[in-house]
Structure formats: C-alpha cells, structure tokens
Design a protein that fits this description.
By secondary structure, this protein is an alpha+beta fold. The chain contains 4 helices and 6 strands, in the order H-H-E-E-H-E-E-H-E-E. A hairpin with a 5-residue loop joins strand 5 and strand 6. The radius of gyration is 15 Å and the shape is globular.
C-alpha cells in the first residue's frame, strides 16, 4: 500500500489527535521530501498571537517522521524508529500558514541501508524548515532519528 498525504492525515487523526486538532496536515510526500503545514488559529496560538512553538514542532516532526515511515515501508522490513534528540531555532513570529519541508530522503535511504548491512542501529539527522507565505524562514527544527532493524 502506497503512503500518501491523505493516509498520513488519517494516521494523524487516529494516532496523533493533538496534532490533527491543532491543524497539522501533510501536503506532499514523495521519495525525497515531505511537506507539512499548520495555520495560525485560536487553538494553536501562544499569548503573543503566533503559533505556539510546540505546534510548530509537531508539524516539523511530522515532515521528518512521515518521510521516515514511507522509507521504512519501502524496504519491507520491521524497523524501530525513535527521535533521540532534537533542537530548534526560531527566527521570526509564526503567523498565517507555515509550511515545513524535509528534504532528507537520501539520508534516510543511507541510514536504512547501513542498518540492514551491519545489523546495528543507526542515527540520522533530519532538518525541517518552516517558512511563511512570503517564503521567509520562521523556524528550523532538527531531529535525530534512531533506526534499528528488528530481528
């Protein structure tokens, strides 16, 4: 079964309801990238009338995690995946619709190939960049994902 933004959004509604209710949605999912969005609304705002940092984090993590899930599904093996470290930088106020883009498809492929080859767990850093409708970067999130082939 092929993964798609629609299936990711259904998954989010069922398994990550706080992200779904805050408006986090997958828009693009292909072999090299995943794009998610979140729009500033009352339910996801902070006291400064912008998107709460944790809501931005949910959208940013989904961009990396959905891409990781798709790549794992493609290799047709059981793999455990876990965020082990993350960091973020906030550049400007997040208002309007914010788009998070992760372009880490090749990095994930390399980590999974190495995990299969060695049998050891691997880590991969994936970046998710949040931009506003003008194209200005509002925040950058980095997630270190750990992957290990299950026996």
């Amino acid at each position: 079964m092929k993964m798609s933004p629609r299936k990711i959004n259904a998954f989010t509604m069922l398994k990550l309801p706080s992200a779904y209710f805050c408006g986090v949605r997958a828009k693009v999912l292909d072999d090299q990238k995943c794009i998610t969005t979140v729009k500033h609304r009352w339910i996801n705002q902070n006291p400064f009338s912008s998107i709460f940092w944790a809501v931005q984090g949910m959208a940013a993590e989904l961009a990396t995690g959905a891409l990781m899930m798709m790549k794992i599904r493609q290799i047709n093996k059981k793999v455990s995946m876990l965020v082990t470290t993350n960091n973020a930088t906030f550049i400007k106020k997040a208002t309007g619709r914010i788009t998070f883009t992760c372009l880490g498809g090749e990095k994930i492929d390399d980590a999974l190939k190495e995990a299969i080859h060695t049998g050891d767990g691997q880590t991969v850093w994936l970046e998710s960049i949040g931009t506003d409708v003008k194209g200005d970067v509002v925040s950058t999130f980095n997630f270190e994902w750990s992957v290990k082939i299950k026996s």
